[in-house]
Fold:
Amino acid sequence: MQLYPIKFEPILKERIWGGEKLIKTFKKESLKTNIGESWEISDVEGDISIVANGFLKGMSLRDLIKNYKSEFLGGKVYKQFGEEFPILIKFIDAKTPLSIQVHPNNELAKERHNSFGKNEMWYIMDCDEDANLIVGFNKEVSQNEYGKALADGTVLEILNSEKIKTGDTFYIPTGRVHAIGAGTVLAEIQQTSDVTYRIYDYERLDTTTGEQRELHTDLALDAIDYKLHKNYKTEYQLIENSASKLVHSPYFKTDVIDLKGVIEKDYTKLDSFVIYMCVDGNFDINWEDQSININKGETILIPATFSEVILKSNQARILEVYL
Structure:
């Protein structure tokens, strides 16, 4: 039987900073009240996604790749990554601020953790009026200056704080210090990695142990990019019924589609799977004589074997992710 657009069971993660929006707004099913992350498509060991629809229901992402190879991933993707799925797709609800953290690059992550590095991007879906996040430094600092600020509790003073609104987009390359602020719901696209160095955590206590959460101060020192960058926010132009470029990196490419009506997507020349993340409204995907509806906070994967699909909506905003 032929492949089809595939939905996966969300993998919900309790977090000390999590809230209830993923459950109440996006209709994720959980009895918990502090769900911080919904892992929509994951190949992280111990958290492998399971198909939720169609005749492949119950099959794991790894089994899909093993059975369908380049039909599922695309020839160039399969050649590069083999049976490893290269990206991790999430929705995040930060009721309170996340810890300030940094991710190691591919070389450090491979050496220390036998893992990919963790380049990622954020698309702000909803946020409180006064919400902000931390990205990078607000001035050039040396490793020694950073270490001193960390030691004397003034590290927040040298970090760049960005006031945010819906639609704002940030690329977070490895080495860039960052943190999601309170009252923020976002879509996150990243390399398949769960390696994070926590460098500051507001002296919060772990709800299980009652002790302050572990920091990774020494590991982070040579992973951090201490340079001042001119602009941390991604600028883009939104064009109705067109795929507008958001973030194109060596690790993933993401466009945003502002959909009102009907558009045909031609993937004949794209040798890759495509992931749609609905970040606003809802839309239908039509192929051959079949259709499936995707709501805000849902994700679906279009296998590489598809050459075209038709998207329909009165109003939707969609992140289109591929390699």
